[in-house]
Amino acid sequence: MSDNQRTNPNDDSRYAHDEAVKFKINSRRAKLFGLWAAEQLGYEGDEAAAYAKEVVAADMDEPGYEDILRKVQADFDAKGADVSDHRQRTKIEELWNVAEKQIMDES
Questions:
Q1: Rg of the chain (C-alpha set)
Q2: What is the mean pLDDT of residues 46-67?
Q3: Residue 2 lies in a domain
Q4: Whole-prediction pTM value?
Q5: Residue 1 forms part of a structural domain
Q6: Any idea what DSSP says for residue 27?
Q7: What pLDDT, on the 0 to 100 scale, is given for residue 8?
Q8: How many domains does the chain have?
Q9: Mean pLDDT over residues 63-70, rounded?
Q10: Which residues contact 58 (CB under 8 A, 6 or more apart)?
Q11: Using CA atoms, how far apart are residues 61 and 107, in angstroms rounded to an integer?
């Protein structure tokens, strides 16, 4: 076996840890975006929390956040909420930074 084929067990562990952290950040971002979207829809309290959980569940459909945007846009359309695609994309990208900071602060 050449040196290039050898895998350092620490590299595998680090990769697994990094992937777990990314998953937590993505989930937190989805929750925060869901809470923001709930506010735009006029939801409060338990209704907003339940909606945020729906958004987190929608995030499991495919990699990235397009699945979340489709779900939220459909809900905005159904409720007649006028929230632009640009505003949603700006908010979801902003919330990645917020989620990352929160997760890192918890570690």
A1: 17
A2: 94
A3: no
A4: 0.86
A5: no
A6: H
A7: 67
A8: 1
A9: 94
A10: 30, 67, 68, 70, 71
A11: 27
Using CB atoms within 10 Å of the CB of residue 5, give its burial: 0 to 12 exposed, 13 to 18 middle, 19+ buried: exposed
The Cα angle at residue 84 between residues 83 and 86, in degrees rounded to 5: 135
Confidence of residue 9 (pLDDT cuts 50, 70, 90): low
Query: 1 falls in which pLDDT band (50, 70, 90)?
Result: very low
Q: Which domain holds residue 94?
A: 7-106
CA distance 37 to 20: 26
- CATH number, position 39: 1.10.790.20
Chain centroid offset of residue 66 CA: 10
Determine the Cα–Cα distance for residues 85 and 80; give it in Å rounded to an integer.
14
Please indicate, yes or no, if residue 76 is contained in any of the structural domains: yes
Helix axes 66-79, 85-106, angle to 10 degrees: 130
Distance, in Å, from the CA atom of 65 to the CA atom of 20, rounded to the nearest integer, reads: 17
pLDDT over threshold 90, residue 62: no
Report yes or no on 46 lying in a domain: yes
